[in-house]
Amino acid sequence: MLALNIAEVARRGFWAAPLVVLGHGLAEAALVAALALGLSPFLKQELPIAIVGVLGGLFLGWMGLGLLRQKTERPVLSAKPSRKAFPVLGGVMVSVANPTWLLWWAAVGSTFVVWALRLGLPGLATFYAGHILSDLSWYSLVGVLVSRGLAPKLYRGLMIASGAFLLALAGYFIYSGGAFFLA
Questions:
Q1: Where are the domains of the chain?
Q2: 20 to 30 A Cα–Cα from 153, which one of 11, 29, 118, 137?
């Protein structure tokens, strides 16, 4: 999500950061609701994790290649920012396609959901709001820093490092998920 945030803010301006978090928050709201309704045992099974691992790895690989193929210079912000919904959709997709996101929610997040539900719906809403506000705070800070200007070499270095990291992560997820199907 950090790589997507940096790339979208550099391309579209500061407001892309909250839009990426909005997409991420929509995906998390759906998952928190599903966990509250009892999805947690399903997410702990090997087959769904393997499927998300392979598909998520392919998606992360596609994103990593996209970051590595970007122009050498930081994109110039246009006077008319794009109205495309990609930052929101990107936030959803990068969340859902990331196997560690699913594993974290199955292992750790589900426990927080159970604890929050001890206080009823207000407890669950408070947990969710606090969680999303922390994401919004962090990615907005990154958005401010990127939108204020990164030196072209620093921007390119961040994109290369992010792309390489996503490719390595993609390889790991595809290998791990694929091992389930080959066993």
A1: 2-182
A2: 137
> Mean of the pLDDT values across residues 87-113?
84
Query: CA-to-CA distance for 139 and 144, rounded, in angstroms?
Result: 9
8 A C-beta contact, residue 50 and residue 177: yes
Token pair recorded at residue 76: 């110039």
**Exposed/middle/buried for residue 137 (C-beta within 10 Å: 0-12, 13-18, 19+):** exposed
Signed CA dihedral, 70, 71, 72, 78: sign only = negative
Q: Kindly state the tokens that stand for 121.
A: 């719906």
What element of type H or E holds 51?
Answer: helix 46-68
Report whether 155 contacts 70 (CB < 8 A): no
Mean pLDDT of the chain: 82
Instruction: For residue 93, give both structure tokens.
Output: 């997709």
Residues 6 or more apart in contact with residue 15 via CB below 8 angstroms: 81, 143
Q: How many helices (H) and strands (E) are present in the chain, helices listed first?
A: 9, 0
What is the reported pTM?
0.70
d(CA 103, CA 132): 18
Alpha-carbon gap, residue 84 to 24, rounded angstroms: 17
Locate the DSSP E strands across 36-155: none
